[in-house]
Amino acid sequence: MDYESSLDRAMDSVPEIDSSGERLSVADAQAQKDGAFTRLTNLEEIADTLSRTPDHLHRFVQRELGTNGKLEEGVGRYNGNFSGGDFDTAIQEYIETYVLCGECGLPDTRLVTEDRTPMLRCDACGAFRPVSKQRRQSQQQQQRDAVEESETYTLEITSTGRKGDGVAEKGEYTIFVPGAQEGDVVEAYIENISGSLAFARLESKQN
């Protein structure tokens, strides 16, 4: 076999690399009502497309929607009434934060952890950098304090959730406090914790 034939054969065996940035095709979110809950029936399919675990995507969707939920057999189940568009918006935010490379914009990334810091490693351009946080974070938000059920904490409400609940950050936890408003400093009793989400009862507001 001559050199040119060998070269042609080798080139034929190399997969084509599409660098257009349009190779990521994600299915529309399929929302299904289930009483007081809404199911995201194709969550596992979407996570597979993104090369991420269903649990990681599910926890992010919970946080974006400001609600509690459960992942069962690849289907996300969330407390509240949500549309497919609501899920699509949350998933797009996830893609921009945890999938697309900040340097080349391609989805050829792997989510890894170094020194407890989530990092994106891009196989297309070689970039390796911490995951870009989209939310504002204060020094208090960056602390890794533990949050426990049946405990009361002093919290600063930094934003408002989709349902109008006050939202605070403490360490790795996002805490929802009904009755509190952005800018309030409150005493809140933790009633329930689900993953990195905590749901609290407003005890009092500081003047």
Description:
- This protein has 207 residues and is α+β, with helices and mostly antiparallel strands.
- The protein contains five helices and 13 strands.
- A six-stranded mixed beta sheet has the order 8-12-13-11-10-9. The protein has a four-stranded antiparallel beta sheet with strand order 1-2-4-3, with helices on one face.
- Helix 3 (54-65) crosses helix 4 (84-98).
Give Rg in angstroms. 21 Å
Overall spatial form: globular
Class computed from helices, strands and strand pairing: alpha+beta
CATH fold-level name of the largest domain? Alpha-Beta Plaits
Mean pLDDT: 83
List the helices and strands and how they pair.
Layout: H1 3-12, E1 31-34, E2 37-40, H2 43-50, H3 54-65, E3 69-72, E4 75-79, H4 84-98, E5 109-114, E6 117-122, E7 128-130, H5 139-142, E8 152-156, E9 159-160, E10 166-170, E11 173-177, E12 185-194, E13 197-205
Parallel strand pairs: 11-13
Antiparallel strand pairs: 1-2, 2-4, 3-4, 5-6, 6-7, 8-12, 9-10, 10-11, 12-13
Helix pairs in contact: 3-4
Outline of the structure:
The chain has 207 residues and is of the alpha+beta class. The chain has helices at residues 3-12, 43-50, 54-65, 84-98, 139-142, and strands at 31-34, 37-40, 69-72, 75-79, 109-114, 117-122, 128-130, 152-156, 159-160, 166-170, 173-177, 185-194, 197-205. It folds into 2 domains: 31-130, 2-Layer Sandwich (Alpha-Beta Plaits), CATH 3.30.70; 139-205, Beta Barrel (OB fold (Dihydrolipoamide Acetyltransferase, E2P)).
